[in-house]
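Is this the right way to post structure tokens for a design question? Let me know if I should format differently. Anyway, here goes:
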């Protein structure tokens, strides 16, 4: 599938980084799962949680201004929202069942699974930014409990596109039972999406039932949109293009996949409707005359090998 060519890069970078869809001064109310994780797993007193997560967010955002950090969306845990989560938990609690969190960021999904009784030796995280791993230990106060002494595996810097023999992910190829990709695929253009999907195929066990789950920013007008910070484009899928991409990946990897995907309203869209906003930072991303904000949705997915 060909991408739309986008070359315009907005000039006011600071306005983009701190635009309301990318950055909030104060954290929104935490989900019950996140609150429980921070209080019971990490041992943070309830009256200190807000100050703690704001401090951690600021440290991480200074390293890279991902919107999921700026808006505290990293604490809106992805796994519990999946219909398959109860069955995934049952599977992952079995020793020797391997789980990989791609683009693990601060490792929040891994800590959730650890708190739910998944053996640490089953848990693997891959992150491009090494500093995020240490900030994750600071966030959850579990450097010894989860880190090398505890048995959890954090690979960083781990570049999904690095297939060399020395690459951190090389040793995991063909060994993962479940891969989670939350807020990951939408970072790339269409060719990058295909390349990541092929790496997922390589990392998963080549057996029926191996599964990729997660969420990403999608759009009712699927296509390429401007990458505000780096130029070029990022691809926004809908359920149809996501399914067709996996058909393409299946043909090229000689594998077959059952794709379940659902578009739903996400936090960014709710904010826009509440506030009546259509423009961010003075320049909106456009594709074929459509503003991305008008069609943005959260796309959740489950891709299972058959």
């Amino acid at each position: 599938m060909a991408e739309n060519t986008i070359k315009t890069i907005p000039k006011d970078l600071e306005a983009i980084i701190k635009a309301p869809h990318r950055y909030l001064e104060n954290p929104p109310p935490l989900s019950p799962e996140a609150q429980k994780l921070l209080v019971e797993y990490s041992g943070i007193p309830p009256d200190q949680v807000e100050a703690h997560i704001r401090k951690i967010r600021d440290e991480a955002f200074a390293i890279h201004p991902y919107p999921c950090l700026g808006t505290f969306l990293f604490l809106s845990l992805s796994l519990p929202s999946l219909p398959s989560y109860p069955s995934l938990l049952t599977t992952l609690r079995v020793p020797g069942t391997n789980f990989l969190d791609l683009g693990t960021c601060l490792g929040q999904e891994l800590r959730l699974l650890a708190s739910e009784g998944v053996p640490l030796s089953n848990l693997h995280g891959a992150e491009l930014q090494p500093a995020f791993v240490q900030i994750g230990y600071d966030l959850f106060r579990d450097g010894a409990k989860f880190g090398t002494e505890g048995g959890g595996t954090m690979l960083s810097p781990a570049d999904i596109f690095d297939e060399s023999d020395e690459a951190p992910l090389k040793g995991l190829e063909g060994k993962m039972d479940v891969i989670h990709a939350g807020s990951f695929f939408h970072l790339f253009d269409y060719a990058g999406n295909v390349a990541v999907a092929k790496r997922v195929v390589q990392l998963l066990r080549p057996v029926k039932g191996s599964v990729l789950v997660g969420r990403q920013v999608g759009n009712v007008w699927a296509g390429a949109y401007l990458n505000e910070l780096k130029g070029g484009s990022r691809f926004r899928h809908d359920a149809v293009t996501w399914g067709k991409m996996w058909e393409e990946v299946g043909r090229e990897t000689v594998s077959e996949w059952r794709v379940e995907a659902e578009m739903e309203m996400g936090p960014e869209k709710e904010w826009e409707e509440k506030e009546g906003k259509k423009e961010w930072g003075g320049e909106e991303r456009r594709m074929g005359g459509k503003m991305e904000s008008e069609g943005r949705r959260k796309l959740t997915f489950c891709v299972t090998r058959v």
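Format looks fine. Someone answered above. Worth noting: The longest helix spans residues 49-63. Residues 1-10, 266-289 have pLDDT under 50 and may be disordered.
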